Amino acid sequence: MRVALFVTCVNDALYPRTGIAVVRLLERLGVDVDFPEAQSCCGQPQYNTGYRHETEPLLRRTAKAFAGYEYVVTPSGSCAAMIREHYPRIGRKAAGEGRGTELAEAAESLAPRVYELTEFLVDVLGVTDVGAYFPHTVTYHPSCHGLRSLGLGDRPRRLLAAVKGLDLVELPGAEECCGFGGTFAVKNPDVSAAMGTDKIDNAAASGAEVLCGADNSCLAHLDGLLRRADAPLRAVHLAEILAATEEEPLS
Amino acid sequence: MTGTYLGMPAFPAFPEAAGEAVRDEVLRANLRHATHTIRDKRARAVAELEDWDRLRAAGKAIKDHTLRHLDCYLLQLEESVTAAGGTVHWAADADEANRIVTDLVRATGEREVVKVKSMATQEIGLNEALEAAGIAAYETDLAELIVQLGHDRPSHILVPAIHRNRGEIRDIFRSEMGSWGRPAPEGLGDDPRELAEAARLHLREKFLRAEVAVSGANFMVAETGTMVVFESEGNGRMCLTLPETLISVVGIEKVVPTFRDLEVFLQTLPRSSTAERMNPYTTMWTGTAAGDGPSAFHLVLLDNGRTDTLADETGRQALRCIRCSACLNVCPVYERAGGHAYGSVYPGPIGAILSPQLRGTGSEIDATLPYASTLCGACYEVCPVAIDIPEVLVHLRERVAQGGPVTREGIRVTLRPAHGHTAERAAMRAARLLLDRPGALRAGERLLARARRLAPRRLPGPGRAWTDTRALPAIPAESFRDWWTRERGTSQ
Q: Which residues contact residue B137 at a Cβ distance below 8 angstroms, ignoring those fewer than 6 apart?
């Protein structure tokens, strides 16, 4: 099976380890991975801040970069939700404004082929034990878009629970937003920090050493708070835990 | 005054008001306790119903159908109310509604009215308008009474005094009740039972004396002309049955076609709002009846920006709202910011999409409300009429950031972008230009990687808000793109 990796712009520029982990993990599971280099940002920051028109060229680019792939896998629930939920909406609005159906068609064609990593592993590959080894106490924060827009359910936690050596502990108030919210963190800094602080306090109360998530944007916010507070916890992307083995542990 | 008025003076932008609330530890503790208690209870009450999803879909369908044919159902309602002995008045805006009610009260010769808790009358600032005309309006809902006695503003749709704890309430009762009527009993404590008894004694005098009552309504039935009020305390029923004259001020979106439609909302509203299977009091009244209840009934149908909202394809779903406040109770932003930060009688997620539509996005508060959310989606998930609040928020952000067509007082106009978005617009455009050129993106990433050791710990400008509380992510030595090329060579 051959899949295209949509690494996302945040991972490309700031968290390459996550993308590398996805490549290693999928290859270990016998999947061939392509990285179409014409890919870029999905346009979510622009769209969610109110700049729909700035999103359109990025939609067009993303759809074109992944044309011809049956499966597009991405380690971000938020970017997957952007493509699945909002691309068709943007396409329909463009058509409604009399600018043709090209965007709508591109969106409709791409949307159903995009899979968030845990969906791809559990639903398409049919695995929950990916042969990972990670001897640490971990708690999982289900980011909002994965949780509510994509309905990932317990897929991430089932994958984590199957990791050898891993002790999965419940995160109190897990389903509450961490307060990142894209430009929200900049526009409403006080509320954002208050929400994030409650989240890291809950993570500390869980007794975990590692706060795991499947969206590096949320994790950047939480990890930033953890490091500013000199907390012993660290934030790690789910893909990096799933990619870790006894031979190649997570450094 | 012209245009839409939600009974409020100018308010600071949301981020500043919310920032102040976040730093108020008592307020945060009060809100946290109250919202978490009610959200857990709501989840249990909703889980009891196997057909919740179908009830939710039915509520949405009834409301959408009614909104699509609103003109027809309002005319049918007028006919039914008139046939049942009531009088219907149409109010285009807050001023007109206030004038109608003031004139109606004046015509009775009375100088005071008792009030059933009502969002519509708060929206138009009716109490203040009556006061200016020398008429005293007494709130009879316990929480509204607390707010009124405390010279305060409501901060929640259902629990207007949610921001107060019982110690604060005792102090308000002790110092203020006497100047409005029966004073608080000597040595009043902060036990809820004692506080409720003090309110009961204070209010009973008002119920027995009042000749005029003012209410809103949760629903109006077009086919029968029936008004419906859902409540918990029974104070509403006192107001709706004892006085001689009853004036109901109701937003035009509250109409439903048939009596049967109430079947859905009788189940979804109480479970969503108070987490009860059924609310203790449901009062329904249809016009007037000889020897039973008020002998005069007036219905004031309030527009105040609603038909303009209806003209917006994406935004109109806000008019489905049945004011249950479930979205407030699950909202992590509301929980920290408190209701006052929203600068409207409609706080929380629903307020963030309703106020900028009813009032327009011209003021600072209304231009910041669409951004008062992380788009986490918890509000959409709990909404009993499935209002996609995040979708409307993003839609309104576009209106603020880029301008666009809107309907104002029935006329289609094109809005210019709100002030203060010039730099942001330029940044978004620059980001898009960079992101739309992977070669330039790669070059940018390399530049960033080379300068990584120079990265500051704190950022200036808009980034400062980030680095005040959070450390910045470390910049990697190599982007994923470069790693891929190095490891796998160029593909595609």
A: B112, B113, B115, B126, B127, B130, B131, B214
With beta carbons less than 8 A apart as the criterion, state whether A235 and A219 touch. yes
Looking at the DSSP assignment, which residues form a beta bridge with residue B255? B220
**CB-closest option in A12, A52, A186 to B462:** A186
Alpha carbon B325 to its chain's center: 7
Structure confidence at residue B3 as a pLDDT band (50, 70, 90): very low
Put simply, the answer to whether B380 touches A148 (Cβ < 8 Å) is yes
Of A12, A19, A35, the CB nearest to B491: A35
The whole-angstrom separation of Cα B157 and Cα B355 is 13
Inter-residue contact B353 to B328 (CB < 8 Å): no
Query: Residue B492: what pLDDT?
Result: 47
pTM of the full structure: 0.95
Strand-pair partners of B115: B139, B214
Question: Chain A: nearest CA to B433, how far in angstroms?
Answer: 9
Tell me whether residues A12 and B399 touch, CB distance under 8 A.
no
CB atoms A195 and B469 under 8 Å: no
ipTM: 0.97
Instruction: Flag if A12 and B445 touch (Cβ within 8 Å).
Output: yes
Q: Do A52 and B398 touch (CB under 8 A)?
A: yes
- Residue whose pair of structure tokens reads 């369908």 in the numeric block: B61
Q: Residue A120 — very low, low, confident or very high, per pLDDT cuts 50/70/90? A: very high
Going by C-alpha positions, the residue among B302, B153, B154, B150 that lies closest to residue B214 is B302
Cα nearest neighbour of B374 on chain A: A181
CA of B351, closest CA in chain A: separation in Å? 17
Of the candidates B401, B332, B399, the one whose C-alpha atom is nearest the C-alpha of residue B372 is B332
First to last CA, chain A: 29
Most B CBs within 10 Å, among A12, A143, A152, to test the B interface = A12
Q: What is the mean pLDDT of residues B340-353?
A: 97
